Amino acid sequence: MQKQSRFFSFEFVRAIGVTAIFLCHYLQSYDPLLQIPHLGGGNLFISRYLGSTFNIVFITISAILFGLKYEKENYKGFEFKNFMYKRTTKIASSLYPFLISMFIIYWLVDVKFNIKDVLMNFAFLSWFDKQPAIGHLWFITMIMACYTMFVILSKKRYHVNSYIWIIIFILCISANYFAETQKLPAGYSLLYLATSCFLFLNASRFIDFTERISFKVYIPIFLIINITTIFLFLNDSYSSVATISYLLGCICGISWMIILLKAGPFIKNRGVYIYLSSISYEIYLVHHPLCHSINGYSVKSITQNPYLAFLIIASLTLIIAILLNAISKKISNLLIIRK
């Protein structure tokens, strides 16, 4: 795969990933109006499939990119202070204006919160202090944990064989199930973290495999994985076990990552995907509150038509994401200059 085509393939994956996550959360809110069949427990199976699958895609694309960078620099370990400053600046420059806006909205619509809630969210610990309509910020806690692990792994130059990885994933799945049964927060973080670390340390091998395997061989595998997963999601007995959903989501996510990376070089009109990728983080931040209700206030208050609501939410998401991205660049440039 040529360098330019490979670069676009990553942009393509990120653009499709954030679009699928947007659809996931839109469907969570509007599935009763669309009248699409549900999973047991009231969750739309399409929404659950998209969320379980593409959250891991959105997380692990960074693992692969940093893994390739690590290998390109001849396995020179990332310098903790410099690496984390750059990543924290990137995350905070969009997150902080978004959080300030959200807490102002909470105050205006009489949503109760305290100083602990504010500090936890600004400290990237949203997973442990979820607030109305911004529960999706668990992603921030997850990605910061991944970045920390990338630095640690790069310093030690770990070479983990296949048998050890199998043991690690079995332990993570077991810990995930234990956390689920004990109602502990962030249980599935271990599975996501292990997947990210695996791809970080095996980025080149993963890309080489993606490039070597032919579409004729891979498409049947892809279809078997995803059709089986959808069938299991439709089965109430499996849908009630979150650990199975997260595991299937990881497997499906990797399967989608492979097929999107392979499809990237064949995409002709690339401008839209590149632009969506450039504002994908901001889209991720702003779409969720627009899809859901904040103390009774939502797009549903304006219209009950799910298709009109989709147009309103999608339009507002893009407009606000573009503005937030512009603000983020100003803040990032200011922080980098001062450093």
List the helices and strands and how they pair.
Blueprint: H1 3-34, H2 45-72, H3 80-108, H4 115-122, H5 138-156, H6 162-181, H7 189-201, H8 203-212, H9 215-234, H10 236-239, H11 242-263, H12 271-278, H13 280-291, H14 306-338
Helix pairs in contact: 1-2, 1-11, 1-12, 1-13, 2-5, 2-7, 2-9, 2-11, 3-5, 3-14, 5-7, 6-7, 9-11, 13-14
Q: What does the main sheet amount to?
A: none
User: What series of H and E elements makes up the topology?
Assistant: HHHHHHHHHHHHHH
| Average pLDDT, all residues | 87
Amount of beta strand: under 5%
Shape: globular
Q: Helix/strand/pairing class, anyone?
A: mainly alpha
Helical fraction: over 70%
* Strand tally: 0
CA-based gyration radius: 20 Å
Gap between N and C termini, in Å?
A: 37 Å
Low-pLDDT regions: 37-43
Number of helices: 14
How many domains make up the 3D coordinates?
Answer: 1
